[in-house]
């Protein structure tokens, strides 16, 4: 197979700072593991607007469609708040997701033991937690028609429509089953089949797909119970698959089980390309953090963990992804911390690049 290709879009604010550390990790894999990537870097968000007058140039969009994976930092900042809606930095991100048709949003909630104290839940409930929420991203109530605010009689009525086709449910269910096969082979589907027809269809289609994955243990849960179970006993789950609306809420809830925004990666996957790899974009959950941008304070771990997801889900390098995650685990266990994680005894505060240095040293030690 040809050298895997990556398009890096650092974006705005802390985006370029955290991405610089990812680039060092990518170089390390090339030098020390013979895992070379064909890397191109381009502009997105406010940075693209400053140069092209749009938050994503057509040429950049075309490149994103060609590469094996896109790595994105973050977009936005106060400087761009005054721009017209059509050219706001976030539009660049939305255009990438829409035109690449990234329908499966993967949001892991992983709690490193050393950070279990940062959770609002009891340490034993979250220590060692490692679950994955797969959220349908391109359909459902955020897109369904009819929608709008109409007038009926003498009052206004707000309307949104939950609408899912079988094929939309099937493709995200397949993505979730494939993930479960790479993990602990346990999948929980969440909907509201008790009160929503779209939920009944969702459950049916998930069961149909399940027939192709006999090794995966499948469960169904109403989404409201799912929310309760996530905060009661989150370790009962492995992979959760759910629709756009429930996934929006449940993935944020699950993410916060683990503490800091600076630790949360994500992936958005689409249909397989000709080479069998899915269309894919990997990005930290956090934004451009203008309050700390340019000060060397940002935690690069969310962005580095996003690259680990790329290794696992785009490049089938699960062992190397684990190596990187273990290096991060070790660094945290040693008490190395950026400003967002400073608490407790025996911690050493480091800058963004200091955290990169420590992770590279741990990677070296892993050889
Ligand atoms: P934010 O995620 O940028 O920041 C929220 C808080 O978390 C801030 O105090 C910030 O300093 C801190 N923080 C975030 N990431 C951190 C990291 N890696 N290390 C240390 N601390 C970190 O959210 P916001 O302040 O609501 O938004 C700021 C800008 O980012 C806005 O323009 C918003 O539109 C944009 N935004 C972009 C994305 C994206 O690119 N995917 C997501 C959310 C917000």
From TrEMBL:
The family annotation for this protein states: Belongs to the isocitrate and isopropylmalate dehydrogenases family. LeuB type 1 subfamily.
* Residues binding Mg(2+): 224, 248, 252
* Summary of subunit composition and partner proteins: Homodimer.
| Top-level EC class as recorded in UniProt | oxidoreductase
Q: What GO molecular functions are on record for this protein?
A: 3-isopropylmalate dehydrogenase activity; magnesium ion binding; NAD binding
- Which species is this UniProt entry from? Celeribacter ethanolicus
Q: What is this protein called?
A: 3-isopropylmalate dehydrogenase
> What is the protein's known function?
Catalyzes the oxidation of 3-carboxy-2-hydroxy-4-methylpentanoate (3-isopropylmalate) to 3-carboxy-4-methyl-2-oxopentanoate. The product decarboxylates to 4-methyl-2 oxopentanoate.
Which superkingdom? Bacteria
């Amino acid at each position: 197979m040809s050298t895997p290709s990556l398009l890096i879009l650092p974006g705005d604010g802390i985006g370029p700072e955290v991405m610089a550390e990812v680039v060092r990790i990518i170089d390390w894999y090339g030098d020390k593991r013979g895992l070379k990537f064909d890397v191109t870097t381009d502009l997105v968000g406010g940075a693209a607007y400053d140069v092209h007058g749009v938050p994503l140039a057509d040429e950049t969009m075309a490149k994103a469609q060609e590469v094996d994976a896109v790595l994105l930092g973050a977009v936005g900042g106060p400087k761009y708040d005054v721009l017209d809606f059509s050219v706001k930095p976030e539009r660049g991100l939305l255009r990438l997701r829409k035109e690449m048709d990234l329908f499966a949003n993967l949001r892991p909630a992983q709690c490193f033991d050393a950070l279990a104290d940062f959770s609002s839940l009891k340490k034993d409930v979250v220590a060692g937690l490692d679950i994955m929420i797969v959220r349908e991203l391109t359909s459902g109530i955020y897109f369904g028609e009819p929608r709008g605010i109409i007038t009926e009689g003498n009052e206004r009525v707000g309307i949104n429509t939950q609408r899912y086709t079988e094929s939309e449910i099937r493709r995200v269910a397949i993505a979730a089953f494939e993930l479960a096969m790479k993990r602990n082979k346990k999948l929980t589907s969440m909907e509201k089949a008790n009160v929503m027809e779209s939920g009944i269809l969702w459950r049916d289609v998930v069961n149909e797909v399940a027939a192709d994955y006999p090794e995966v243990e499948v469960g169904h849960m109403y989404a409201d119970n799912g929310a309760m179970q996530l905060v009661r006993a989150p370790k009962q789950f492995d992979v959760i698959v759910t629709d756009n609306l429930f996934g929006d809420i449940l993935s944020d809830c699950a993410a916060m089980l683990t503490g800091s925004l600076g630790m949360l990666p994500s992936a958005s996957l689409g249909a397989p390309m000709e080479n069998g790899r899915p269309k894919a974009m990997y990005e930290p959950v956090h934004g451009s953090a203008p309050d700390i941008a340019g000060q060397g304070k940002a935690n690069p771990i969310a962005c580095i963990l996003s690259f680990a997801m790329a290794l696992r889900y785009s490049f089938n390098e699960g062992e190397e992804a684990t190596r990187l995650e273990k290096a991060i685990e070790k660094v945290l266990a040693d008490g190395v911390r950026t400003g967002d994680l400073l608490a407790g005894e025996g911690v050493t505060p480091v800058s963004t690049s200091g955290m990169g240095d420590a992770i590279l040293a741990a990677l070296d030690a892993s050889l």
